Amino acid sequence: MASTALADQVIAIEAAVQNYAWGVPGASSLVATIFANNSRAMVDATRPFAELWIGTHPSGPARVVATGSTLAEYLTPSGVTMPYLLKILSVGKALSIQAHPDKALAEKLHASRPDVYKDDNHKPEMSVALTRFEAMCNFRKAEEIAADVAAVPEFAQVVGEQACKALASVNGEKNQRKAALREVFDALMRRSVADIADPLAALGKRLASKQELTRSETLFMKLADQYPGDVGCFSAFLLNYMVLEPGQAFFMAANEPHAYLLGQCVE
């Protein structure tokens, strides 16, 4: 009954904005434009505007215009919750690789570390491109990664011999494939800065003089230009690289590694 009463109401809310460094400068950011129209605030044209949050998340709650209360405070007396977060994103350069927990793990993490994990909801995501949008999501086929391990010695070096052998032994069985991909990813991400410095520099130098680059190599060079010396540059050889046109969408399930690269979207 309470939720039905709320459904008959339309209330004005003010969304929260996040100014992460990877965002798009205010002059070109859809997030900045919507935020300015929504809040009547002045926007710094040079400051990055990355995300607009419309929801009850404690790190950036929407507020009810008439009262100044948070959206959660407005909904709670009626026993209503909003278990999802709607976002607009303006991505100017690559985000870090993420993988969100499933529901069971989210509840466990929130219970043990509520200061870090602010709620107990899982975080599957769907993004709809508003402009041409680039992203990485989930692992490529094991045989495609194995081909790059063979063709790119610098990549094979940072992955390590043991993980390369695990990948080469994949026979199509699902659990074996998942275990091999996990081993490759873990081996890569655990490398120290010192371990990756030489292979990263060597690969960048070699590709800079190469006439034609593969799709993965092109992405590697783009990431290396944005984040020199970062092990995440090698994710270009591990994850699916997608380019979406406006209106196209993709889904990111729990525990699937992903990263946004460029463009503006609704999430």
Q: How is this structure best summarized?
A:
By secondary structure, the protein is an alpha+beta fold.
Can you lay out the helices and strands and say which pair or pack?
Blueprint: H1 2-7, E1 13-14, E2 16-18, E3 24-25, H2 30-39, E4 48-49, E5 51-54, E6 63-64, H3 71-75, E7 86-91, H4 103-112, E8 125-129, E9 133-139, H5 142-151, H6 153-159, H7 161-168, H8 174-189, H9 193-208, H10 215-226, E10 239-244, E11 249-252, E12 258-266
Antiparallel strand pairs: 1-6, 2-5, 3-4, 5-7, 7-12, 8-11, 8-12, 9-10, 9-12
Provide structural commentary.
This protein is of the alpha+beta class and 267 residues long. Strands 2, 5, 7, 8, 9, 10, 11 and 12 form an 8-stranded antiparallel sheet that branches. Helices cover 37% and strands 19% of the residues. The chain is built from 10 helices and 12 strands. The radius of gyration is 21 Å and the shape is globular.
